Amino acid sequence: MITKRIIPCLDVRDGRVVKGVNFAALADVSSPVELGRYYSENGADELVFYDITASAEDRALFTDILTQVASTIFIPLTVGGGINSVADFERVLSCGADKVSVNSGALRRPELISEAAKKYGSQCVVLSVDIKRVDGELHVYARGGREDTGMEAIDWLRRGVDLGAGEVVVNSIDTDGVKGGFDIELLRAVCEEVKVPVVASGGAGSADHFVELFRDVPEVDAGLAASIFHFGEVSIAELKKALDENGIIVRR
Amino acid sequence: MTAIVDYGVGNLFSLKSSLGFVGADAEVTGDERKIRAADKIILPGVGAFGDAAKKLRERGLDAVVCDAARRGKPLLGICLGMQLLLDKSLEFGEHEGLCLVPGTVRPLSEVLPDTYKIPQIGWNALRLTRPDCPIFKYVNDGECVYFVHSYHAVDCAGSLAATVEYGIDVTAAVWRDNVFGCQFHPEKSGEVGLNILRAFCEL
């Protein structure tokens, strides 16, 4: 059986992992290489590196870091942040990324998805969508969740998959940062319509939230989180043990 | 030296890094002489079968790889590279493979129950039908490896070396004499994958 995937997400700025990190085992907790290796050795099924830098110089630094990570960590790596063109895909894929996540770049120019899927294959193109409820509707937000596009989220996801996205990340702005659990209602609605792998994001605060996610929405393929792993609130090993005890198949 | 055959298909960064990590002297090359001189050959690949087979033939590397395999040189095909070792593929038409291992490549969509997503993306547990296969020297039954594929190998007969359960028994690895193939990505399968590459490099 295919296993449910657990994916830590690391935001990188100026070559360092941002958001507080609290691991006694690591000498340099903000080193993407060290933290990546730590997660890889402790059961992460995949890593997401999100480039939150703005300048071209910092972008070059990010690709250097990515190259170092990809040379030492042999699990799938997804890269997102600032992906606006096929040239951006090329830039990160040549540094060892396996998948590339697009968000605002695809909202501005949806053909980016089809161009990249045609060149690198759908398996390489991940569509990440930030979603928030507005007057009872599910709206797509752009620019890191700051701007309401007014677009209906399920329509956009469906269109993205038609254009060639091979996987989708569904990030609920409503549950993000609250640590009250994943947005089950939203994820159910997405899984009804989307038949490619779905990664759930936003709201994880405990191992129980992952158990609830995979039990209540069995079509979800993976759970993504940042701070609960970085702060050491839940280790991936403990999380996988909890999932296993609840009959959810994971890689141990 | 282990030659990673470069024929213009896919990203070879991780494969080269992972071989370096297990201590192998590996080189990414499309140079016929270097491939002929190598001790071992790895045939990678992503994308569509027809396009990849064409690129391999245009460079004359199909004959180089087949010659080497027939002379007994260890050859490992990975993902699409494994599929290329077989007789033929039915991905977008019918395309001839290298015919080094019996088998046909067919779409997963023909056989999978509706609840299974295509491509199969993720980690799945190996069932070793041939635990004596040399590349499984350091691998245990039930260990997980990473898959990304929409087509699968069927009718491999006695060459089937491992399967995974994904609605049906999907071919995960093939083995015939000195020729090996993995549908999964050992270079992305953590310690288990590195152990497979290590065992291959020790042949």
Q: Could you list some keywords that capture this structure?
A:
heterodimer, A: 252 residues, alpha/beta, TIM Barrel, eight-stranded parallel β-barrel, 38% helix, globular, B: 203 residues, Rossmann fold, eight-stranded mixed sheet, four-stranded mixed sheet, 6 helices, 31% strand
Break the fold down into its secondary structure elements and pairings.
The complex is a heterodimer of chains A (252) and B (203).
Chain A (H helix, E strand, L loop, with lengths): L4 E9 L2 E2 L14 H10 L5 E5 L4 H17 L4 E4 L5 H8 L5 E4 L1 H5 L2 H10 L4 E10 L2 E6 L4 E6 H11 L3 E6 L11 H10 L4 E4 L5 H10 L5 E4 L1 H4 L5 H10 L7
Parallel strand pairs in A: 1-3, 1-11, 3-4, 4-5, 5-6, 6-9, 9-10, 10-11
Antiparallel strand pairs in A: 1-2, 6-7, 7-8
Chain B lengths: L1 E4 L7 H9 L4 E4 L2 H6 L2 E4 L5 H10 L2 H10 L4 E4 L1 H5 L3 E2 L5 E2 L7 E4 L12 E6 L1 E2 L15 E6 L1 E4 L5 E7 L1 E9 L2 E4 L7 H12 L2
Parallel strand pairs in B: 1-2, 1-3, 3-4, 4-14, 5-7
Antiparallel strand pairs in B: 5-6, 7-11, 8-10, 9-12, 12-13, 13-14
Describe this structure in words.
The complex is a heterodimer of chains A (252) and B (203). With 252 residues, chain A is α/β, with parallel strands linked by helices. Chain A has one domain (5-245): TIM Barrel, CATH 3.20.20. Chain A has helices at 32-41, 56-72, 86-93, 104-108, 111-120, 153-163, 184-193, 207-216, 227-230, 236-245, and strands at residues 5-13, 16-17, 47-51, 77-80, 99-102, 125-134, 137-142, 147-152, 167-172, 198-201, 222-225. An eight-stranded parallel β-barrel of chain A has the order 1-3-4-5-6-9-10-11, surrounded by seven helices. In chain A, a hairpin with a 4-residue loop joins strand 7 and strand 8 (147-152). The longest helix of chain A has 17 residues, at 56-72. The relative contact order of chain A is 0.14. Chain B is of the alpha/beta class and 203 residues long. Chain B has one domain (2-201): Rossmann fold, CATH 3.40.50. Helix content of chain B is 26%, strand content 31%. In chain B, strands 2-1-3-4-14-13-12-9 form an eight-stranded mixed sheet, with helices on both faces. In chain B, strands 6-5-7-11 form a four-stranded mixed sheet, covered by helices on one side. In chain B, strand 12 (160-166) and strand 13 (168-176) form a beta hairpin. Chain B starts with a strand and ends with a helix. The mean pLDDT of chain B is 95.
